[in-house]
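Open question from group meeting: does this chain pack into something compact, or does most of it stay loose? Before anyone orders reagents, we agreed to write out a predicted structure and look at it together. Recording both the input and the output here so the notebook holds the full record.
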Amino acid sequence: MSIIDETKFVERFQFFNGQRLFAADLQGLDEFNRQMRWLHNQSLHQPGVGSGYAVNGKKGDREVTIRAGYAVDAGGREIILTETFTLPIPPIAGDKGKPIFFDLAVSYPDDAALEEAETREGICIDRGVIRLREVPVFCWIELAGDQLAPRKQKLKFDLQNGLRIRLARIAVLDCQLYADVSLAERLNARPAPTPYIFSATEAISSLEEFNAQIVPVPAVAATFGLPVLISGKVNTSAAEFLTTPEYQAHFAGDRQFLFGADVVVVLDQFQITIQQSESFNFLELMVVAGTKMSQSRAEDVLAKIRLEWKLLWMGIEG
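Structure tokens returned:
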């Protein structure tokens, strides 16, 4: 049941001078603040690892090391590990020579299982507990089938509903790690920063190192078309890519030009040659074709292209 279902009303605790306080009053105040914090977490954050909880283990190891971390479950409860913890892997030989896969999950401790951290003598009453230590509960979840789904339905339900947070996945053969620990399957509370997509339209006049060259060909070949090579560099620093993205680009503009009664058609092929985080280079191979072609006519077409065409590009960082 969610906190919203359980919280039917909100009461603010109030104290006055001379009031006799009971343990239930102070515990109620602590419970109120905790419930409001959990409600905040549950409403505004998704379950998963917020920071830390690095899991390390190399092929051949018989244990994994879990470092301090902070996670939140679907109930908004904070699952906090304050020191490095070593956990033995399941002592499994394997399945007919094949490794068996396990997910490592962490969950919030049950109130009944909390360790007494400090007790104190009462006034005219027996000693009582004043501090309880919250220690995360770690669990190895055995996986089966081609989809590597949890064998036990209860554990599968807890993972799917964010009551247990997946930290890592291992493969075990002959009671040791068959491969390094995998973190690709862990559930993170923070949204993934990738893929990051940025697109823009550039005027040809803004391109760096822009160069257009008509390739010299014999007069007979020039009767129907002239090859033209266009190269240049596009500055993509405005996108603020952290790594080199995958670029896609092309020129947008008319491919047919009219000079009096003569029609000139441009056929082109765009290619990205060099990709970097802040720029990419391109090469455009064009054929300027018409019934009455000449180098001067090709230069007229290039002048129109410089004026009318634009470069459309997109970078995908993932």
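Observations to bring back to the group:
The domain at 196-317 is CATH 2.60.40 (Immunoglobulin-like).
The first helix runs from residue 3 to 6.
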